[in-house]
Each structure stands twice: as C-alpha cells, then as structure tokens.
Design a protein that fits this description.
It is built from nine helices and ten strands. It has helices spanning 47-52, 77-82, 99-109, 116-125, 142-154, 172-189, 200-206, 224-228, 234-254; strands at 8-16, 22-31, 36-41, 62-67, 70-71, 84-88, 160-164, 192-197, 209-214, 217-222. A six-stranded mixed β-sheet has the order 6-7-8-3-9-10. A hairpin with a 2-residue loop joins strand 4 (62-67) and strand 5. Helix 3 (99-109) packs parallel to helix 5 (142-154). The protein binds adenosine-5'-diphosphate and magnesium ion.
C-alpha cells in the first residue's frame, strides 16, 4: 500500500459529549504514512476519543478525519475498518472461543478464508507458537493475550494500527518485550501506528513522534530527540522530567 494512502489527517476535530465540555477541542494534525506516533497525556485529556474518530467508533462534533486524503465517512464503515487495525487494553478476546477462533474472526471480517495455515502465520507474526491456536484465552498470560489481540487486528492486513494503552495491564518486563515486538512489526509491515499511552518513557522509546494532549488539545508535538533536548515546550517538559530523573538516578547507582 502506498504511504499516502496510510496518512491520517485530523482537520479541526472536536468532540463534545452530551452536556459535557469538549473532550477533543479543535485538533488539527497530520500523521504521515509509515510513521509511529505516540499520543500521550493525563487520564481524561481526550486521547481515546481522538483515536476513535479514525475508525469511526466516535463521530466528531466538528471537523473531519481523513485517511489517505479521503474522509473516513466516505465509505461503509466495515470497509474502512478492514484497513484499520484496533487494539485496546484487555483486548476483548471471546473467552468461550479458542485463540485460533478469535484470530479467525479477524479473517472472516476481512472476507478471507480462515484456514489453520493463515492463523499460524498470524500467530507467528506476534511470536506465538501455532499450537497456541487450540488454547482458550484464560490459559494464556496477559502478554500472550495482548499478542493474540494484535494478531487478530493484523488479520485484515491493515495499513494503519490504532492502539489504545495496549500494554496497560501488563508487568514491566512483558510490557517492554511487547513494545519492542510491536515496533518491529510496525517497521516490518510498513504500518502507520498511532499508540495511546500515559507513559512518556514508553512513548520516547517507541515512537518517531510524540503528541501530548491536555484538555482536548495537542499541546506539544515533537520527536523524542527534541523532547529529550527540552524543545517540546512546558507541557512536554513536565512529562519528560519523570523518566529523565529516573534515568539519572539509575546512572548514579551504577556510579
Ligand atoms: P483519555 O483517553 O485521555 O483518558 P477520553 O478521551 O477517554 O480521555 O476522555 C476525554 C474526556 O471525555 C473525559 O473528560 C471523559 O470523562 C469524557 N468522556 C469520554 N467518553 C465519554 C462518554 N461516552 N460520554 C461522556 N463523556 C465522555
Ligand atoms: Mg483513554
């Protein structure tokens, strides 16, 4: 898929929930095809709302979202979603279905045949053994379940991956391993990835570009290198200070 068709553009996007303030407030930003962008910010800053406007789980109150230069509303929603993988915390695997059946849902949604070979191939992408297809989700670790969720999202060979706190419930070691695996998949498959996280360290280590949200607005937009150099502005500096200080303290211990 050409890079342009994987570009995501937000044009003056706002979302007001009934009776509430603007959860997303006039966001205009373009995510280049093939890039890995982290969306960082405190709880309630509007990250998930903004992300969900891309696959139309949420319709903006104002503005529009374009994928590959075309408004997301221009085609039937099921066709749009075939091109957009979506992974969220506690992936929502069906507990009464095996891992293989869960992955097959993704294939069926994509209008593809769900044969064992294709399921094995998808499990292999996320570094799970083919034998795992016969297991039920409750016989997997949290990290393995998240990997199955990623495999299911990849079933329709999407050009774009949306991830909403995909590592939220995982221990630090599993979280780190899965983060690296997802970055490797992004590079290998040439995806456009937008990942929501509240963890600035994770954003700095995985993304090409970090957008910071506060109060529904994007208040910083910079590369990890620029953020570390203090060029991201006050809102970003406050978030970067935490992992920076931890890194310094660890360095001192090494002494
Ligand atoms: P984040 O993902 O950054 O934690 P959200 O996008 O989930 O933030 O929420 C942004 C704001 O919108 C919050 O104030 C939240 O309470 C509000 N909000 C989110 N979903 C709804 C909803 N379905 N109805 C009303 N308000 C909502
Ligand atoms: Mg959220």
């Amino acid at each position: 898929m050409p890079e342009q068709s994987r570009t995501v553009t937000f044009k003056n996007v706002s979302k007001r929930y009934a009776g509430g303030v603007a959860a997303v407030d006039g966001v205009s930003v373009e995510v280049a095809g093939g890039s890995f962008v982290a969306l960082v910010g405190a709880s309630g800053s509007g990250k998930s709302t903004l992300l969900k406007t891309v696959n139309r789980l949420i319709e903006p109150s104002e503005g529009e979202v374009l994928v590959g230069g075309v408004a997301v509303g221009a085609e039937p929603v099921h066709l749009l979603r075939r091109r957009i993988g979506y992974v969220f915390q506690n992936v929502g695997l069906f507990p009464h279905m095996t891992v293989g059946e869960n992955v097959a849902i993704g294939l069926r949604l994509a209008g593809e045949k769900d044969n064992a070979a294709r399921i094995a191939e998808l499990l292999d992408l996320v570094e799970l053994p083919a034998e795992m297809a016969a297991r039920f989700p409750d016989a997997l670790s949290g990290g393995q379940r998240q990997r199955v969720g990623v495999a299911r999202a990849l079933a329709c060979a999407p050009g774009i991956m949306l991830m909403d706190e995909p590592f939220g419930a995982l221990d630090p070691v599993t979280r780190d391993a899965l983060g690296k695996a997802i970055r490797a998949l992004h590079d290998r498959l040439g995806l456009t990835t937008i990942m929501v996280t509240h963890d600035m360290a994770e954003a700095l280590l995985l993304a090409d570009r970090v957008l910071v949200m506060a109060g529904g607005k994007i208040v910083a937009d910079a590369t990890p290198r620029d953020l570390i150099a203090g060029k991201g502005g006050a809102a970003a500096d406050a978030l970067v200070a935490v992992p920076r200080e931890q890194a310094h303290r660890l360095k001192e211990l090494e002494g």
